[in-house]
Write a structure and sequence with these properties.
Helix content: 40-55%
Number of strands: 8
Strand order of the largest sheet: 2-1-3-4
Shape: globular
Structural class: alpha/beta
Oligomer: single chain
Number of domains: 2
Distance between the termini: 83 Å
CATH topology of the largest domain: Rossmann fold
């Protein structure tokens, strides 16, 4: 009799546990830190996503590790920006089982997407365009270039996915390679515009609800909180940058135009077109001349790449040097990273330009 009662109790307990087991968090894998931060924020109270590009590594130069491959094989859901940024992921994602949902966030509805600029000294023609677009902040509408939205991409790849951007790649002329921005293609540092970050968070939430509807209420409540946090962050950064909007500066590579156009700061050029390719003497000479011509106040390095080049282009000028980290390589991964990343950019720029 005792054994029967114990067995019945165990069976009853299992029945009560079953719904919990059914609503366990999905296995979610994310490519890079800024996106991981958004996903982790939406998943608060449900689970934690795993991250591929950890530490100070850069997606521009990353090689997939065996542990990353195993995580991808077990994933229910994978988030990445797209092959223009994480080229190392394209073939592994194509090889995933068909039941894995892969979300390419460059196709999220409502994104503003910008093409890479020609060359490395782009102050003359691009800053005027920034002013005309009215991106000096306070805007609620980027004039959304409805790239993916107009194409009707809800982007439920279910896998064996059709990227839907072969045309963009053909126009870029580099089969998704990120090695030469001067030949075209879209700038993939989408998260540096906070309005884009909100669009990405919305797509992340939708995808999580699709694979895990039992936690829909939590995901949607977290999205509301994330949107409020980003709005407050946006207002804070705009106020911080306002005193230095007219001072030109040079960046290591052209990764900041979303931040630039949203807040109205003046990026006059980049030391290198692409971080995988170090600039030659002619390019360094051109940037050096641009610094002198514009009286550029600062030249910014990035923590993942060789900083000695900054000394070369600033030699003999009045320009100061600083560091910008657009991918959060120096930050600890997690929900707080996105806000820290954006605040650090604003603080580095305002501090250096105020000197």
């Amino acid at each position: 009799m005792t054994r029967y009662r114990l067995g019945l109790a165990a069976s009853t307990a299992f029945l009560f546990l079953s719904p919990t087991l059914a609503s366990a968090a999905p296995d979610v894998v994310v490519s890079i830190k800024p996106v991981h931060s958004l996903v982790a924020s939406i998943m608060k109270g449900v689970g934690e996503p795993s991250l591929i590009v950890e530490g100070a590594a850069s997606p521009h130069t990353y090689s997939l590790k065996p542990s990353n491959a195993r995580a991808l094989e077990n994933a229910d859901l994978v988030f990445w920006v797209g092959p223009g940024l994480e080229a190392f992921l394209e073939k592994p994602l194509e090889a995933l089982p068909k039941n894995a949902k892969v979300v390419e966030l460059e196709d999220a509805p409502g994104l503003t997407k910008l093409p890479f600029r020609e060359g490395g000294a782009f102050e003359g023609h691009d800053h005027d365009a920034n002013e005309e677009e009215g991106h000096a902040h306070g805007h609620d509408d980027h004039g959304h270039e409805e790239t993916a939205a107009e194409a009707g991409h809800e982007h439920d790849h279910g896998h064996g996915h059709d990227h839907g951007h072969e045309q963009e790649a053909a126009e870029a002329g580099h089969e998704h390679e990120h090695d030469d921005h001067a030949h075209g293609g879209m700038d993939m540092h989408l998260w540096l515009d906070p309005t884009n970050a909100k669009a990405m968070a919305t797509e992340i939430t939708k995808s999580l609800v699709d694979v895990d509807p039992s936690n829909k209420a939590t995901y949607e409540a977290n999205l509301t909180a994330v949107n409020s946090e980003i709005d407050a962050l946006d207002t804070e950064i705009a106020a911080q940058l306002k005193p230095v909007l007219e001072k030109p500066f040079i960046v290591f590579h052209d990764a900041y135009q979303y931040f630039e156009k949203h807040y109205g700061v003046r990026v006059a050029g980049s030391v290198t077109v692409s971080p995988e390719t170090m600039p030659g003497a002619e390019r360094l000479s051109t940037i050096h001349a641009k610094i002198e011509e514009l009286g550029a106040a600062c030249v910014f390095a990035e923590p993942q790449f060789e900083p000695k080049l900054i000394g070369v282009v600033t030699e003999g000028t009045e320009a100061k040097s600083g560091v910008l980290d657009p991918e959060g390589g120096a930050l600890e991964a997690g929900p707080a990273l996105y806000g820290q990343l954006m605040r650090n950019l604003a603080t580095s720029i305002s501090t250096c330009l105020s000197q």
